[in-house]
Design goal:
The protein has one domain. Helix 1 packs antiparallel against helix 9 and helix 4 runs antiparallel to helix 7. It is 79% helix and 0% strand. It is mainly α.
Length: 202
């Protein structure tokens, strides 16, 4: 549960890729931008597969308590950052490209997007081992998380197409950021509770 809540909090908060999706929706290019969303999802799937299996081979049970503490602290930190961050939507829309966004645009942009590592590394190096996610389960969860990643800019594009320019009012996305930040802090609290509960039972 924590894995998906954490991923949701980062993937669906306003960022460069999601703003590009929003811009596509606002300019009536949703149907022509589906390849872009798929590229984003495939990129995340590949990153989760790569780091998921690397994490499985490198991280042993001895390191899990330390990794868990670091992960909880990092999640709290990210939650507070998202909660307090401002969204300059007008500036992002001005710099978002208006040409057709392709599969390779989405794949490359997501692969080199720093936000990708914010979600991939904590999940694959901390949450997967803590939840004993191994073998084929890594592939399955990577696939689901990749689909969720594709859905993030897709949902922003749908929102832009459905609601129109009024959705770009900074206050709306700032409140959404607050929601995502609060969700991430909740995830950190759940992780801390599970760590303490497991420690008491050890």
């Amino acid at each position: 549960m924590e894995i998906f809540l954490f991923a949701l909090s980062i993937m669906y908060s306003p960022g460069p890729v999601n703003i590009m999706g929003l811009s596509a929706g606002l300019t009536g290019q949703f149907s022509r931008t589906v390849g872009f969303f798929i590229g984003v999802g495939v990129s995340l799937f590949c990153l989760f597969i790569l780091f998921g299996y690397l994490g499985e081979s490198l991280i042993t049970a001895v390191y899990l308590p330390y990794i868990s503490v670091a992960g909880i602290a990092y999640t709290f930190y990210l939650g507070i950052k998202i909660l307090s961050s401002r969204v300059d939507i007008d500036q992002n829309l001005r710099v978002a490209p208006m040409k057709r966004l392709t599969f390779w645009n989405g794949f490359l942009i997501q692969s080199f997007n720093p936000k990708s590592m914010l979600v991939v590394l904590p999940i694959t190096t901390m949450m997967f081992p803590a939840a004993h996610v191994t073998g084929g389960t890594i592939f399955l969860l990577s696939l689901l998380l990749g689909l969720g990643g594709a859905g993030a800019p897709g949902s922003y594009a749908l929102l832009g197409a459905a609601i129109g320019r009024s959705v770009t009012h900074t206050g709306y996305l700032s409140r959404f950021n607050q929601l995502m930040g609060g969700l991430m802090i909740t995830v950190a609290a759940m992780m801390l509770y599970e760590l303490l509960a497991n420690g008491n039972h050890a």
